[in-house]
Write a structure and sequence with these properties.
about 475 residues; alpha/beta; Rossmann fold; Helicase, Ruva Protein, domain 3; 3 domains; 6-stranded mixed β-sheet; 5-stranded parallel β-sheet; 21 helices; about 45% helix; disordered C terminus
């Protein structure tokens, strides 16, 4: 097939189109030319490789099935060249295996046949707005620390920001999964669009479909007007599904269809509407094990876990504790309007030796509790209360009942109540519904107690 090159006047970029079907190739060429782009076309893998040797491109758009090979081979070839060239693939309708394989090989994104022109234009605009490879990421330094494990996370986030592939972020509660998701979004092409975070474990099952997809007026009792769901709210941006392992099986089916078809149907609607969202999910559970056990759909698992990012627990990066602690103390002081407290060397040594089962979120809670009860401006080991002292020690030999009255009874009870609430919140990943259930009180009672005791949910800038 003869190679074709068309240039628009003053074209803002050059696109390589690879497809052996003349009608599809012409449709793509005309669409790109109307966008002010130059176009070169090839009908096979070998012709595309020749063009790649001869000139520079800003985007490659390739079909998956070609006469002398597959588009996947071209994706791998371009990745091996190390050039700054995003590749988008065109897949057959419903063939998600090819799409996932291409994304894992390094493709920027994919579009399914029949090609929707609006979806194609959005994809092209996104690909051409990518920052140059090697450009310093804007915000990854919000991940505090210089450990080897954290540097690897930063590098992975920079790579993930250059693709639209679904990402599964794994790690223990409090290890910073939501922060990582936000950084992928903020350093990618969707940074100017919404980032919608959803805690899948906090939504009642009966409300999930309407919360995710929205509903039409009159769809059910109380639906007094049309309402958008999470997918519509995230249109053009990123939808972050936190604790995705908690989704019930019926909702998993609906979610899988929405991700594969890139469209949703509101509750009570007869037709579907297209949505353009990037999916990033997170869990502290082993999703592979749950899929093998049948409690999580395997097809959805493979659709979400195209690329995995593991957030290391704090005990694997102990050298980062001083920097994180200093930043937390600075934030606490800013909120309180005073000078930040500082850690004594002995207190810092204790923190460095502690395993932090609740990770960064637990460190935040420890320091918030210490500063709230601090008499001076230096936090000592005794202020950290990493190992709760036995009540017998307070009333033991030499102290008697007088030692138990060092604090007034109301303050002593408040301290105990605060510690129990913080413990429950830490163990449930700060899921207040689950924490209230664990404490044997209602959600409203927990919220009241948190307000009375000054317990705040840690800021999203430090942990998930």
């Amino acid at each position: 097939m003869k190679r074709v090159e068309r240039r628009s006047e003053g074209g803002a970029g050059q696109v390589l189109v690879v497809d052996d079907e003349p009608d599809i190739r012409e449709l793509l060429e005309l669409t790109l030319l109307k966008m002010g782009l130059g176009v070169s076309s090839a009908g096979s893998v070998s012709e595309a490789k020749d063009l790649l040797r001869e000139q520079r491109f800003d985007l490659c758009l390739t079909d998956m099935r070609l006469p002398d090979g597959e588009g996947l081979e071209l994706v791998q070839h371009i990745a091996a060249l190390g050039v700054d060239l995003p590749v988008a693939v065109i897949t057959a309708h419903g063939n998600t295996e090819n799409a996932v394989a291409a994304l894992k090989a390094g493709a920027f994104d994919y579009v399914s046949k029949p090609v929707g022109l609006e979806q194609l234009r959005a994809l092209v605009r996104s690909a051409l707005s990518l920052p140059e490879r090697g450009a310093a990421p804007a915000r990854v330094q919000r991940l505090l620390g210089e450990s080897v494990a954290l540097e690897q996370v930063r590098e992975m986030i920079t790579r993930l920001a250059r693709t639209q592939a679904p990402v599964l972020i794994t790690g223990e509660s409090g290890s910073g999964k939501e922060l990582a998701a936000r950084l992928i979004h903020e350093n990618g092409v969707r940074r100017e669009r919404p980032f919608i975070a959803v805690n899948c474990g906090a939504i009642p099952e009966s409300l999930m479909e309407s919360e995710f997809f929205g509903y039409r007026k009159g769809a059910f009792t109380g639906a007094e007007q049309d309402r958008d769901g999470f997918f519509q709210a995230a249109h053009g941006g990123t939808l972050f599904l936190d604790e995705v392992a908690e989704l019930p099986l019926p909702m998993q089916v609906k979610l899988l269809r929405a991700i594969q078809e890139k469209c949703v149907r509101k509750v009570g609607a007869t037709g579907e509407e297209p949505v353009d969202v990037r999916i990033i999910s997170a869990t502290h559970r082993n999703l592979g094990d749950r899929a093998a056990a049948g409690s999580f759909r395997q097809d959805l698992y493979f659709r979400l876990n195209v690329i995995e990012l593991r957030m290391p627990p704090l005990r694997e990066r102990r050298e980062d504790v001083p920097a994180i602690a200093q930043a937390i103390l600075g934030r606490i002081a800013t909120q309180a309007g005073g000078a930040p407290a500082r850690l004594s060397q002995a207190a810092l040594d204790e923190l460095m030796a502690y395993d932090f089962p609740g990770n960064i979120r637990e460190l935040e809670n420890i320091l918030e509790r210490a500063t709230a009860l601090l008499a001076g401006d230096v936090i000592g080991p005794e202020d950290l209360r990493l190992r709760p002292a036995a009540f017998d020690d307070e009333v033991g030999a030499g102290g008697g009942r007088d030692a138990a009255r060092v604090l007034p009874l109301p303050e002593h009870l408040d301290r105990m109540e605060r510690d129990l609430i913080l413990e429950a919140l830490t163990e449930t990943g700060f899921n207040r519904t689950a924490a209230a259930k664990r404490l044997g009180i209602t959600f409203r009672q927990l919220r009241y107690r948190m307000q009375r005791l000054g317990i705040r949910e840690p800021g999203s800038g430090s942990a998930d």
